[in-house]
Every structure is written in C-alpha cells, then in structure tokens.
Amino acid sequence: MDSNKDEAERCMERAERYLREKKYEEAEKFLRKAQKLYPTKKAEDILVKTAILLKQNQKSESEPTVRKRQTAPKEASYVHTSSDYTKEQLEYIKRIEKCKDYYEILGVSKDATDSDIKKSYKKLALQLHPDKNKAPGAAEAFKAIGNAVAILTDVEKRKQYDMYGSEEDRLQNAHGRQNHSHYNYTRGFETDITAEELFNLFFAGEFPQQEFYTRRPGGRWVRPQDVQAQYAHSQQANGYTTFLQMLPVLLLILLTMMSSFFISDPVYSLHPNTKYSVQRVTQGLKVPYYVQEAFHSEYQGSLRRLEVSVEEEYLNNLRHACYKEKTYKESMMWKARNFADQESFAKAKRIEMPSCRKVEEIQGA
Description:
62% helix, two-stranded antiparallel ribbon, single chain, mainly alpha
C-alpha cells in the first residue's frame, strides 16, 4: 500500500505540473491514475476542477478558426515569454523530458566509458544549472542528469541498472504495469549528496573565480570546499568507527596467540592433519575424530566423556553449517521473489542443504 501511495504522489506532482502548463488532458490522466492507486480528497477536488477546465478548453478549441486566430495561442510551458532563457536552453529541457533511460538523458551509448559519461554531464550541467537556465523545468532536468551520472559512474549501481532497470521500472513490473512513456525525472536524487553538491564537485576546480553555494537542510548555504571538508571528516570518522568495530576481533586474535604459549594442545581434532593422524570413532553416533600417536599411552581421562565432547562439537558444527545453508537458500528465494523471477525461484527452492539433512538424520536416530 505504501508503494501505491508513493506512486500516487508522483502522479499528483506530474498532474499539478501539467495544470500549470495548461495541459489539461495529461493532468486529468495522471489525476485519475493517482485516485486509482491511492484515493484522496485533494486528488478528487483537483480532478473536478481539471474536468471543468478541460471542458472549457475543448469548447474554445471548437470555435471558428477566425476567432481562434484572434485569441492568444495556447502553448504549454514552452511559450518563450521571458528573456531570461534562450530557445536552445529550452530545447535541452524538452529533450530530457522525452528520455526513457539514463543513457538517453546524457546522450551516451550503453558502452560509454566513465570519461564519456562525465564529459557529457559537464556539458549538460552548464546548460541546465538553475542559476544559469531560468526556463521552466530546468531544476527537474538538472536533477535528472545528476541522477544519471550518479548511477552510471558507480560500477555496482550501473551493473544493477543494466540488468534490472531503475527502481521505478522494477516496481511497475512487479505490479504488472507498463513503464511510463517518459522518464520520471522528478524522482529523488539517487546518491549521498545533492545535485548541487555533485555539480560543485565536478566544477569546483574549473571555476576559480566563482563561488558556487548549495543549500543545506535548515536553509543554510555552504561552499563546495565545506562540503568536501565535511566529506573528508565523515571518511575519517568512518575509519575510526571501523577501527572500534574491529578492536574486539583484534583483541581476540591477540589473546588466542598469547594462549598458545600457556595452553597445551587439544586432545583430539575433527579433521586429520600431520599432528592428529590416528583415526578413532565414537561409540554413540559413530563420529570420526583424530588423535595424536601417543594418545593411548598419554591420555589418562575418561574415554566416554571425551567422546561425548567430540559428538557435541560435531553436532554444533553441523547446526552452524545448517544455519548458513538455510540463510543462503532463503536469501536466494527472497531475491528471486522480489524480482518476480519464477525460474530463479524454482532453482533456489532446489538448493541442497546437506548439513541440515545430516542433523535431521542424527536427531531421528
């Protein structure tokens, strides 16, 4: 239900944008879709108003051609009514709104290198930055190219995108719906920093005479060098945190090394090696274990108690291996189910769990 609500909100955003552009048919289409996904009073009210506007617009279009020429032409958001932007800047935005994937947004092929992708991004960013391009939709288009470069310059994210498409595509496929005809460039930015910060990182070294600022939560504006300093501080803090997380492991290794100087060798081993080369079998569960050559002459303890310890360790190892097998199988089934891949799901269900089977056999005996 939450996924339907999120998609309904995206439909509402697009509908409101189309209303501002006086594209009433498109607005009505997305409002109806939003109502179908997640009905709200707001969407219902806007839908009623849109229906009235659409009817009035259709009536005006049905009037004689002579009268239509006397009225002002009805363009959408692309009427060049301001001298703040050029026709070329507007064309960049219109092209991106028609794109269907990240590669098309940046104008590169699917085998493009990182250098090609960054070069294309830098060219587009100079045309679409909201401080330089005042055309309608510039901010959304600027966010779209930021999304594209963030994904396509990350090895793992690009691999996932090439295999499965965007998160929105996967969500639509899981619900059995077709993809939108246009790329949804109004989605949230898909990296750890904002589109403005990404722009600053790309261009900070190339514009020494300019100060680019980005707005942080709470209304505070900061410079790119401040962002970089925060990033470096974050990396340093992460390194310190990693060290603290590893400290118990390092102490355990140190204690293990020190204990080797004070603790004698164990009596047995579950695995053969040069030191434990003589095989024995427990009387109860018939578990094989290995002892040293001098075991018969040096061991003075209870043989029965020793074999109980062997069997307990053997069972614990089996249970641990069984847990890992179950976890792996369940994760593969969940992954296949999440991507609606029936073939992979069936294959995951057939994964063998030999340790679990052995535990069941012992418990049954």
